[in-house]
Amino acid sequence: MAAHFGRRLRKGAATTAVAAAAVAALSASQAPGVTGDDHGRQTAAGASAPVPDAAGDDATGNSPYYTDLPPLNSPKPSPSPTTGTPVVQGEAEAGIPATVLDAYKRAEAELRTSKPGCNLPWQLLAAIGKVESGQARGGQVSADGTTLSPILGPVLDGNGFALIKDTDHGEYDGNSRYDQAVGPMQFIPSTWAWAGRDGNGDGKKDPNNIYDAALAAGHYLCRGDRDLSREADLHAAILGYNDSQDYLNTVLSWMEYYRKGTYTVPDGSGGLPAHRSDDGTPHGGTSPKPSNPHTPGRQDPKGPTAPASPSPTNPGDGKDGGPSTEPPTTPGTPPATPPTATDTVDHLRDTGTTRLTAMAGHAFTGAIGARAETKAGAPVAKVRIRFTITGDTDTTFTGGESVATVATDAQGVAKAPALQAGEKTGDFKVTATVVGRSLKGVDYQATVTERAADALTATATGDTPPTCTPGGEFADRIQVKATYKGAVADQVAATATLVTSAADPAENTKGPYFKDADGKAVRTLTGLKTDAKGLLTLPKLYADDTTGTFLLRITTPGGGTLTVQLKVAADDTATTSPSPSPSPSASS
């Protein structure tokens, strides 16, 4: 029931078969054409083969989860009252506690704005919340969404579950030896450290708060530019949360069920599932609502309990009611745990990453790589490497995250996702560390430079320079196109100056001019910027009473320069407009 990375203890093909059958039944009885009514998206009718999670991480550490399946009949809730206390109506399992449901819908709304291409349905969050914590133990949350008592997954000490040694010094799970999944969406501490979000605006990122946890889960599922309206991406996202085919099928079953209708129930009145993936009990149907729910491996509502210490149970050891076939071990001396791949890592080294530089708004071309090695220099495979961006920057990895975790390959190498520069210029740092260890990290320096153009061309054709009469205005506005290495240079800053001469870039004191907001003559414009097509159209130009040939020079970062010739001459055929009021800079 935890959202973290690792491997769960699973219960075989039976769970997959039952869950798959439930999905199929739901699809047949409730969803002709398997079309959901949420945003008009197509939904999956069943689970395909597991799709690897490209990020190399999962949210729960593959902790146990609830395997109860939804009823096969479609929920048919009556409309909830607009005032007063909600009343339980329709199928009991279709009811979701008010605060919990609000958190899911808020997270969907935020993701619709921040990552519109993800198409995250709140029903997916509700399905995960159901199997991870029974909707926060039936809605046992305060008004601000914080659980009334801690929700903790089993100790991840390698005995039946993943082995994840402490990464948060017990800050979130109260366990300084091993990690445990935390909160209603069951994030392990090492994942929450980078995936955590503030969903209720209180300035904190709390895995025990359903608003924070639901928003974090939404962003976690939407990593890597996923589109959850696509079956492959949807399955990859769910398997990334917990790498189990059984888990995938169970979540899909609940998501389909919730798409057919839900209703609000008061906080604290929801039922708690009874069957877990690690208890060997049947998982079809639902369980009665307990008056004082208890979740194995979690803290008691009356107060926190001390973290459990490793105590493996094996068949025939006398702990399951059967006779013991082995002599008792010495009390207080647990069996030695073999070292994991992570334990064998002595250091990280750079794989030859060069200096990283990119223009604002563009992708970095250089790749970041780190190699995990033993003390003897041998590569270590299947070790999770976390890449973290730090510094005053809005640069992110592909997908919009500032942290990415990648597993090393057979050569011990982990490659970070591509970096995408934001609009903030300057230096920042990417650091690679080994998840679950306190080894020295590897730093990679990177720089974002301002947007640039190395060439400017006038869009107007012809050899005749723009001309107007003294005291008049130029008929056409000057427009130029900016490019960088032949490509359109958009959002590039530019400066336009009426210069003294081709050799003297100083601002001219007479001749053509622009007008500022107050109508005063100005001969230098700053703060200009090209548009999405690389085009820059200057404001209208005016002329004072001075005749002659004048020069307008436009420059950009990156070396782009264009000098435009302007003429002011008496012409009986020219249309003149009244001369503007003289100003010191416009007088001759």
UniProtKB/TrEMBL annotation:
GO molecular function: peptidoglycan lytic transglycosylase activity
Keyword Signal (UniProt): yes
Keywords recorded for this protein, A-Z: Signal
One Pfam family recorded for the sequence: SLT_2
Sequence ranges assigned to domain Transglycosylase SLT in this UniProt record: 178-222
Biased composition (Low complexity): 43-61
Pro residues: compositionally biased ranges: 325-338
Domain of life the protein comes from: Bacteria
Entry keyword annotation includes Signal: yes
Cross-referenced InterPro entries: Lysozyme-like_dom_sf, MltB-like, SLT_2
Start and end residues of each stretch annotated as Disordered: 29-93, 266-347
Gene Ontology biological process terms in this record: peptidoglycan catabolic process
Signal sequence segment: 1-30
Gene3D superfamilies reported for this sequence: 1.10.530.10
Membrane-crossing segments per the record: none
Protein name: Membrane-bound lytic murein transglycosylase B
Organism the protein comes from: Streptomyces misionensis
Organism ancestry: Bacteria, Bacillati, Actinomycetota, Actinomycetes, Kitasatosporales
